[in-house]
Amino acid sequence: MKILLAVDGSPYTRKMLAWLSANDDFLAGSHHYTVLTVTPAIPPHAARLFQASELKAYYDETAEAVFKPIRKFTARHDLATQYVGKTGNAGEIIAKVADKEKFDLIIMGSHGQSSLMNLVTGSVATKVLANSKVPVLLVR
């Protein structure tokens, strides 16, 4: 099974990993995991003040900060895992990656880092559910 783990480093990401640990069917067998984190893009008017290499370094460092504890988890459970960091609108990108790469399942937390932003723009989970044809497992 090809599984996309959408993560943001929030407490719900940790709950999702705990849920995986408690469900041996997901840790056993020939599942292949891709861990995806999406960093919000710096607004264009602010981004123009930085060199492209500085922006790339910022996005890479932000993604790696989210990936670090997950790398420990996947190594401990010996999971075949790929790590992907993207930049932009999380809900849209998660859905696009899942559909384009033909994942069998998306697993993600029901809430994320930016609760205040969700009030304005809607939740990432809602956007993924609305835009993806791939089944989504939300961990609460």
The best one-word shape is globular
* Rg from Cα: 15 Å
- Structural class call reads alpha/beta
Distance between the termini: 22 Å
Largest sheet: 5 strands, parallel
Amount of beta strand: 15-25%
- Total E-strand runs: 5
Strand order, main sheet: write it out: 3-2-1-4-5
Q: Which whole number gives the mean pLDDT?
A: 90
Order of secondary-structure elements? EHHEHHEHEHHE
Helix content: 40-55%
* Uncertain ranges: 116-121
* Helical segment count: 7
Q: What report would you give on this structure?
A:
With 140 residues, this protein is α/β, with parallel strands linked by helices. It contains seven helices and five strands, in the order E-H-H-E-H-H-E-H-E-H-H-E. A five-stranded parallel β-sheet has the order 3-2-1-4-5, with helices on both faces. Helix 5 packs parallel to helix 7. The protein starts with a strand and ends with a strand. About 4% of the residues have low confidence.
